[in-house]
Design brief:
Elements lengths: L2 H4 L15 H37 L4 E8 L2 E8 L6 H7 L1 H10 L10 H8 L7 H7 L3 E3 L18 H4 L3 E3 L1 H4 L7 H14 L2 H16 L6
Parallel strand pairs: 3-4
Antiparallel strand pairs: 1-2
Helix pairs in contact: 2-5, 2-6
Amino acid sequence: MSGSVANKITPAPSEQFRPMSEGKQLLKRAIDVAGALVMLVQSAPLMVSLALLIKMDDNGPVLHRRRVVGMNGEFDAYKFRTMRVDADQVLHRDAELREKFQANFKLKNDPRVTSVGKFMRRLSLDELPQLWNVIKGEMSLVGPRMISPAEVEKYGDATWIFTVMKPGLSGYWQVDGKRDGTYDERVAMDLEYVKRWSLLWDLKIILMTPVRVLRGAGND
């Protein structure tokens, strides 16, 4: 980890967590690469279409780089841009909106989201560029929630999970139907996933993710 974020990361408690074996790490990585490559090829025409829609909407940037926490330090997670180009200024000018955002680091019915962005978020299409992060080895197809450096302190003694598991394109928190839960509940779910991790659970989450997305349980 880099800078002040590294100072907030606690080591994994040996009495509560047993790291996955090297063989399982290699197998998980193989599934990540193979799955991400297949999905990139299959979704390429859709991604081109989405990029054109974003550009035509307001002529702003197609991609958004979100600074997030990973196993080897901070990195940029790629997403299709879903917010107005002046989204940061909107949040800065509205104290009430800023307070709501800082409580859970997300907003219900976020007024900064564009019309194209709402469509993409509803089906989680904005996250397709993160398949490249998976191929680069910064993310996994399944893992804990992806969080920004500002969110680390909300994990308290559970920050150690960021040293043993890559953030996931999907995860336990995404498919169990509790996406609107409190932040503490989301932390507890990340902890449970990391402690109970298995390849079978990963495969189950991968299979469940499209179902949850099609039911409208994508990003808010």
